[in-house]
Design brief:
Three copies of one chain form a homotrimer. With about 650 residues, the first copy, chain A, is α/β, with parallel strands linked by helices. Chain A is about 30% helix and about 20% strand. In chain A, the strands form five sheets. In chain A, strands 9, 10, 11, 12, 13, 14, 15, 16, 17, 18 and 19 form an eleven-stranded mixed sheet that branches. Chain A starts with 7 loop residues before the first strand and ends with a strand. Chains in contact: A-B, A-C, B-C.
Chain lengths: ~650, ~650, ~650
């Protein structure tokens, strides 16, 4: 670890059957040894609670801890997360072992943070969970089943419930397209998962009130059925596991946006506080269809990308490859050869070395004036929705495309949900804001009135928080802010397009023609002004892009699914109007992005080349190249997958 | 509704939980109000029985009403048709509520027809259904299990049953390829569904003997596992739900044939009596992969196509979009905006207006001299069959291709099954008549002997009604009529073709060469004469098309799966010989079809352009254009997706 | 049968419900009749035991005989192999009926061999099987659950078992990727299947000790989950069912290798003893996606290919097509027409006639100096492995590609597993030898030291017999023999390639450039010498092909997945060095292969043309053409799909 420059290790994940090999019989000796060794060598421990998987004896003695799936089949012992979050026994057992861990290591010098469980996910449909679901519903609907009937629109298909006992969780053997029910089930699963987490940390908080708590989230867009924005409120520090599938070719430049999106989202969850990169691989993973080792330079770039977007650490799964079972071919710092004479180990050393030069960056923040709404419940609702193009409702892709326009310019973005305070931004972007929860439209209106710029797209303002359509004309409560009425929406078949012709007076410096695909929203302007129109089909001449002036602000409405080019041109114009740009003030070649962290000591500009060819960036003035340890100025050259961190002392 | 020109509404579908919110507690007030309002405004009601979905309380109290699926899993409450048609409780409950409805509204001025349940479908594998299946088998096989063993060929794989109790319905956990069993199960499901329907209408018939009864069938080809020809015998009026996926481009011309096929099939089920278009959408549906709104003109054309082929009404699902649940984005006359100022509403008005000009058409018939056999049990058997090309056995597509040749010429066709009287036709077409039920071959022979023209294809006369192969040479009992022996059949791989060379003396004016694909039947002529031969492969020179003269008629045999071109040329020649053509006596440009309804007042020619470009049709004489309200003559122009209805007074 | 030249028939397969129509009530009369008729007409019987499918009454009375699937669902009565191999009742019942058959026909003149059951396959997860699995594990791991924990690496994911009762078979509802467990389960299934077979033959061996026993294996590569090499040890004669999907076009030449591989594998299982072709079709099968009848000549060629590779018989499924059930359209000698005047029947006659001219070939052997390791457990392990390219781990394809290079030259190969004696070969080829069972590496080392030539590829020497990785550097225990260390492995995306540049001193006469795809192993030579290097990417210049000299032998290591061209050139060079070639000593045109059987009377060269065009082979001397019945010399012409059998008298 010293060779590798590692000063922190997560330990104890999935260690339950080692710590407690039989019920109430414990063995902490091995863990003591590890903790002591870490401390002796100046390495901190992120100590895990072991609830991510249970020992065989526990499942054998208390079958209730295992899940029941949506087909109502009782699961067998096996896998990782396969335990019921409602189970009183499982809650009791996890609390008990967590308390023992906390008591034993509360004063241990190695202990720096708690890593609670591991990658929470999944759901259970057992009778306990059914009962909890019903209770959750009673509470939500004020114990009034008529309210539930109204919001779930159960009159349709004769589904009017007369007793709470009649309600069952969604199932392929029962209902799976009563949208209000499905949404509430997903909300319940989020609530129940968080509740289990809260139960886990009761002894942790009691015994070690000053040790921060985290749990590792997954994937650049999170997992669809568990609302991480809600979960983030309960942890002290957000951390996530990032396994980008870098290909080592020109496609990485586009792909890098997805990862940047993830970093920005996880940072935004705690209102911009630094987060942790909990897991990443030093070389390959073993679960993609094709698992390619990282090409040279890619590991350093990928690791520092996290720092650039607000992480304060880079961690690996795993330190050493296990000999057997399902992840034995997952990358590790140390392989089966046991040697440090490997390309992978040298890559890890390079990251350790770079991080040691970036100590000043720790704790610094990112100054973002752009908020992009990526709302979890909106996403769940869009996924379940039946209509338009059932085989294309990729909210995630559309949000990423909008985000990409900013990434290309190196403009900082916060990725937020509908519950955030919008007033801190100059520009608020909300693609496909299908679901508007109570008060959101009002808060957007106030944002615009107060001078903000708002951008919305087709298929916004359609349903309330329970997936009930707004009456009286779409975009529902956003109609005034956007100044339009959407009458219907055309779904184009694959490979069909329409042409969008901009008005010469569009005022945004847009080109004359752009391509629309997939969706064309057929709207009527009310108070808005058209900036572009469709150029063919029966709606030729109808608006394709509008702007509405409201109070001191503006609200744009994009009626079509566009190619990246339009979004790039559009947001370039908008950000120019708002005076937003990258903090280095330079032009960025394709595939190069900038992220700037700011602290008391100055700005730290991370200039990253995600292409496999050399790129040149011309600086306006001199900066200190922190990795090189020297001042640079003029035009600098970034090698393929190269990165430079430029320090700019302020004042 | 008045604005929209609607004078009839289907109501009460899925209303059970509203009518009977708790067991034996009823609320008819809301329904009274609607019925009265309709009557007051001159709108008729097609009143539905509510058995299409049950209230939660019913499933909770009587779990037996829910289905058991083929894996023997008990379904949970949910969805629509998810009730056991065998359940005594469910039968009792549906009878009871139907009786109450009938008693309450028997003299109501709005009541014009009964809409029984909704889109019957599916099957149940519970122990009650198993027992009913066994009883059905006992009856079919004269209580002699040896007969069943013979017909199911159970000696194969050691399946000889010795007791009826050993028999279970087909299942992925048991048998699924004992073809006799699978066929009998599907027949049983049809019988059981109809039996449930008959049970439902007992009180209806008693209380309102003069009100006609219908139930809505689905899809242009029906649903494969429920024999609609059998079901049609039990209703007073056939009605169906048609949701064509018009694309608004040049592919619609080809696709329109499928819908025309459906209309002709449903009309033929009641021997040509007018049917009803029970459901159609005024704009989009919400369950295709891509749901495109109807382009301008398409709604009127699509609606009047039904009338053209024999419907006496056009109805919509749904009047108004619901706010929630799974069909909230399905098209409706009135959208979430609640406005009549929409393109969709105006389209509905245009249909109402057109229909008001076509009153004379009501009750008229279609004079068809061509019968096309599309036999439901043959289709079920072909689907289950293992052999030839398991991934291509599309009986439906082949029947449609044959049908298309007539549609292109505007020649009326009846789509019938094997049980119909063939003697009323001049031409009988039976593609892939794999299964010959008892007496059918004899009746075909008599048809030909009496002067009829019969057309058969490869893979005909293979099995009896229980899927047992005929011995002694294919096409089995049709061998004499067709005058050939089919020795084996070649299956071509995709993209492979053979060439078919016609004899110069073919007498049909066919071209020299056509393309064969997918199947080439290797036959020997006996009494038949070859009209064309295969031109390559080891069967070069063997017959590809034959004709057999028998009595006063002719029987053609097509040995290959052909492209549309061959069928068009072949049927053009055949119909010419028989003096059949469209009733307008005109040449039809591509994509334009004609359907003619005939009554005492004359002929009503519906000339329909299913392309998106203008088409010209040159008339032989003057006609009255009913939509225009003026006389027309000479060459008339149909705009893209345009339709003209020409009245021709007879005598 | 006489017309067809058939002198042997398999009978009684699936006859249980006919022999024992009710429990303990037997009817052998029909079987007596058949046996007697066969004997009277000089036809031998291969008499089957009926355990391949059970009568309905047996499953009804003893439900335990039916299987439980991996989801723990109890199967229903149906299908063929759907019985639990652990069931005491089923074992008792099969023994009992087998004893009756043996007693009745032990002295029958027709009886020539026992055909035990039919195509054994599948597994059962009932509680009896769970208990047997646990007992099997206890025995394997010396009743020490700690050993099991170590080998299964259960510490990962907290899976440490403390009691055997906690262990359950793999399931989608439980564990499916604990690789040691999955492998052991598959081994257990093999053991249990063989144990069932052994139980079946107890009475057979007792009553008819001199009648040989076989059971029919399936497919050219066997079925993945049942280790046929292990099973083959228990039968007297190996037999298999071969249903090649000949297409009748140029692709057959490549495809023929797969079938040849199968013949060679089944022959090798009993160390080169002649095997039987138990089932083949005279025309079509009915279960491929597209079932094409055999083109002219193909049936004779396909049948004699089996003889060429060591079979001593050719048999058909089925004699006559059944009228019903799932295989009624499977090819047969006699079709539904019942006639002998068919192309198919004439094809069968041609095979009977050819075989009658090849009596001398019976009992002769094939002299092979090349051993190719195709290890069943290695294959199971590679399939389950998670890593590299999860969507491409086709061990079978890679082994076939290596095999094809020898087939093209007409060089005899034995296809063996890791347990065989390697010392009898000059050349040992072991593609992707991922798993090395105990002692195998040592035996390979000895083979090389003693002068053998060994060829290995990337991804060899990775795990032990329980899928635990070797530590200290790959290829683990083969590192010394191969003289290299494999540090990591690059997985190329589809359509990506690298170029391999050979050293001018490669000594194999290889071309300058070859293409690498899919995998590139990044190795370091230790004692080996590079013969070629990669030409691009970050590992440009690293070895792509190496040779290591050890003792009197050589060991080659191929670092990349190659196209056929490289393998052909490489093995041509290697076999040339070793003096190996086809026994006819001729150059073979593309698509033509030779297999030579050798006996006391001389060599029998089967020269086979698997293309649809004529091929010319020029002989070095005169031979006796056994099918023609005449001497031939000089250049002979093989018609499309033609075959010649040349006898060469030795000495």
């Amino acid at each position: 670890m010293k060779l590798a420059g590692c000063n922190e290790a997560s330990i104890g994940i999935f260690a339950w059957s080692t710590i407690e090999p039989a019920e109430d019989a414990y063995d902490f000796d091995w863990l003591d040894t590890i903790m002591n060794k870490l401390a002796e060598n100046g390495v901190y421990a992120m100590l895990a609670t072991p609830s991510g998987a249970r020992p065989p004896w526990l499942a054998e003695k208390y079958p209730e801890v295992l899940r029941t799936n949506s087909r109502r089949e009782k699961e067998l012992y096996g896998n990782r997360h396969n335990h019921c979050f409602s189970s009183p026994i499982y809650r009791e057992k996890t609390q008990k072992i967590n308390r023992l861990l906390a008591e034993r290591y509360k004063n241990h010098p190695a202990l720096i943070m708690w890593h609670i469980s591991n990658e929470y996910s999944g759901d259970c449909h057992c009778s306990l969970c059914q009962e909890n679901f019903r209770n959750w519903l009673r509470k939500k609907y004020d114990n009034d089943i008529k309210k539930l009937n109204t919001e779930w629109w159960t009159g349709f298909w004769s589904h009017i419930y007369t007793d709470w006992s009649q309600i069952q969780s969604p199932s392929p053997l029962g209902d799976s397209c009563v949208h209000g029910m499905v949404l509430d089930w997903k909300r319940f699963v989020t609530t129940q998962t968080i509740d289990f987490f809260k139960n886990e940390i009761v002894p942790i908080r009691e015994v070690t009130p000053n040790i921060p708590v985290t749990t590792n989230f997954m994937c650049e867009y999170g997992i669809e059925d568990l609302d991480y924005f809600a979960f983030a409120k309960e942890v002290d520090v957000v951390s996530w596991d990032s396994y980008p599938q870098w290909k080592g070719d020109s496609s990485d430049a586009n792909f890098a946006t997805n990862i940047a999106f993830g970093h920005d989202m996880y940072r935004s969850m705690k209102h911009g506080k630094p987060f942790l990169l909990m897991e990443s691989t030093p070389s390959v993973v073993n679960w993609y269809g094709i698992n390619r080792p990282k090409r040279p330079s890619v590991h350093l770039l990928s690791s520092l990308q996290a720092i650039a977007h607000g992480a304060d650490s880079v961690q690996y799964f795993q330190w050493r490859k296990g000999r057997g079972a399902s992840e034995k071919f997952h990358g590790a710092v140390v392989g089966h050869d046991g040697s440090e004479n490997t390309r992978t180990f040298r890559d890890v050393v390079s990251v350790g070395s770079a991080l040691s030069k970036l100590d000043e960056v720790v704790g610094t923040a990112i100054d973002a004036k752009v908020g992009l709404i990526f709302d979890w419940e909106n996403r769940m609702a869009l996924k379940e929705m039946q209509g338009l193009r059932n085989n294309y409702k990729d909210y995630v892709e559309v949000c990423t495309n909008h985000y990409r326009s900013f990434w290309k310019c190196g403009i900082a973005v916060e990725v937020i949900d509908e519950t955030f305070d919008f007033s801190i931004y100059n520009l608020l972007v909300a693609p496909m804001l299908y679901m508007l929860k109570p008060g959101v439209a009002q808060r957007i209106e106030e944002f615009v009135e107060a001078g903000g710029t708002f951008v919305a797209t087709y298929w916004s303002g359609i349903v309330n928080e329970n997936d009930l359509c707004f009456l009286g004309g779409f975009p529902g409560p956003l109609r005034k802010t956007l100044g339009i009425w959407s009458e219907e929406i055309d779904c184009l078949y694959d490979n069909m397009t329409n042409n969008v012709k901009t008005e010469s007076t569009n005022g945004l410096g847009l080109k004359t023609d752009y391509t629309a695909k997939i969706f064309c929203d057929l709207i009527h302007t009310e108070t808005a002004k058209p900036l572009a129109t469709f150029d063919s089909d029966f709606y030729k001449g109808q608006p394709a892009l509008t702007v509405n002036h409201l109070g001191k602000g503006k609200a744009y409405y994009i009626c079509f699914n566009s190619e990246q080019e339009f979004l790039d041109d559009f947001y370039t114009a908008i950000t120019k109007k708002l005076g937003l740009g990258n903090k280095l003030g330079v032009h960025l070649p394709d595939g190069v992005s900038i992220s700037t962290r700011t602290g008391e000591q100055g700005n730290f500009h991370f200039v990253m080349n995600f292409t496999d060819v050399e790129k040149i960036v011309c600086l306006e003035k001199a900066y200190f190249d922190m990795l090189l340890g020297a001042e640079v100025e003029g035009c600098i050259t970034l090698s393929g997958f190269g990165i430079t961190v430029l320090k700019e002392t302020i004042g």
